[in-house]
Write a structure and sequence with these properties.
It is built from seven helices and eleven strands. With 258 residues, it is of the alpha/beta class. The longest helix has 17 residues. It starts with 9 loop residues before the first strand and ends with a strand.
Length: 258
C-alpha cells in the first residue's frame, strides 16, 4: 500500500473531510508509526513498518515548530480552521502531551484566535488523568470507538496493549458529553474473519452506546485511502445515514463523510 507518514512535526494546512483547513501536529516518530492500536484501515500502515524509528520530538521542538509555522501562516494571511493533533499514530502516547496542549492553546490564543484545537485519539489512554485532563482542555477532543462489541474492536483496531472497551467507555463518560465521538464504518474479510459494520447487531449496539455516552457530536466516516489490510470495502453515505437515523431523530448531531 501507499503508506502516508508525516515527516514533519507541523504539516499543512491540509483540507480535511471533517475539520476543514487543518494544520496538523505530529508528536510521533517521523519515519514510522507508533500507536497503541494497529487498525486494519490505518493510512499510516502497520505498526511493524518503520519500527526502527522510535524518536519522539521534544516538547520544545514541538513548540518551536508550531510557533514558527503559525507566524508564517499569519504573515501570509492563510486561514486555519483547526490545529489538529494526529500524525503517525496515537498522539496521547507522548509523555509531555499535557504540556504540549497547554502551550498550543496559548499560541492559538496569541496568533490564531479564530482556530480551534482538535485531537484525534483512539481514547486508549483516557484512563490516565493527565491525558484526560489535557483532552478536556481542547475545543475538539475527538474520541474513537469503532464498535460497541469488544470482539469487533479487537478485529478492527487490534489493540497491542492491555485494552478494555468497558473501561474506555467508563473513562469517556467522565467527559460528560463534552467530546466528539468518531467511528469508522467498513466491511471485509480479514484473517478469515468477516467484519461488517452495517450488520444489525453491530449497528444496534453502537446506537445504544452513542445514546449512553451522549456526545455533543458524532463523526461517522468510511474508507478514503489505501488500507494495510486488503479487501476492505467502503460503506455508503446512505447506509451510514440509515444507521444514524435513530440518533438524529433524538437531536444528536451527526456528521457523515463518505
Amino acid at each position: 500500500m501507499s503508506t502516508i507518514l508525516y515527516k514533519h512535526i507541523v504539516f499543512g494546512p491540509i483540507k480535511s473531510r471533517r475539520l476543514g483547513n487543518s494544520l496538523g501536529v505530529n508528536l510521533l516518530p517521523r519515519f514510522g508509526k507508533w500507536c497503541s492500536f494497529d487498525c486494519i484501515y490505518c493510512e499510516c500502515g502497520w505498526n511493524r513498518d518503520g519500527r526502527e524509528d522510535t524518536v519522539l520530538p521534544t516538547a520544545e521542538e514541538v513548540r518551536t515548530a508550531l510557533e514558527y509555522r503559525l507566524k508564517e501562516l499569519k504573515a501570509d494571511n492563510i486561514p486555519i480552521d483547526t490545529i489538529t493533533f494526529s500524525g503517525n499514530g496515537e498522539p496521547t502516547l507522548h509523555p509531555d502531551f499535557e504540556q504540549i496542549i497547554d502551550f498550543t492553546l496559548a499560541l492559538r490564543d496569541e496568533l490564531y484566535r479564530e482556530a480551534v484545537v482538535s485531537v484525534l485519539t483512539n481514547a486508549s489512554q483516557t484512563g490516565k488523568e493527565s491525558v484526560r485532563r489535557a483532552l478536556m482542555k481542547v475545543d475538539n477532543p475527538i474520541l474513537k470507538i469503532d464498535s460497541a462489541i469488544e470482539e469487533m474492536v479487537n478485529a478492527i483496531d487490534r489493540p497491542n496493549e492491555e485494552y478494555s472497551l468497558q473501561k474506555t467507555v467508563e473513562n469517556i463518560k467522565l467527559f460528560k458529553g463534552e467530546f466528539i465521538l468518531q467511528t469508522m464504518f467498513l466491511k471485509g474479510i480479514v484473517d478469515g474473519k468477516e467484519i461488517d459494520c452495517t450488520a444489525p447487531e453491530h449497528c444496534r449496539k453502537w446506537v445504544e452506546l452513542v445514546e449512553e455516552l451522549s456526545p455533543r457530536e458524532v463523526m461517522m466516516y468510511t474508507l478514503d485511502r489505501e488500507t494495510p489490510a486488503q479487501g476492505l470495502q467502503k460503506v455508503s453515505v446512505e447506509q451510514m445515514r440509515s444507521i444514524a437515523e435513530p440518533l438524529m431523530k433524538k437531536g444528536i448531531k451527526v456528521q457523515i463523510r463518505g
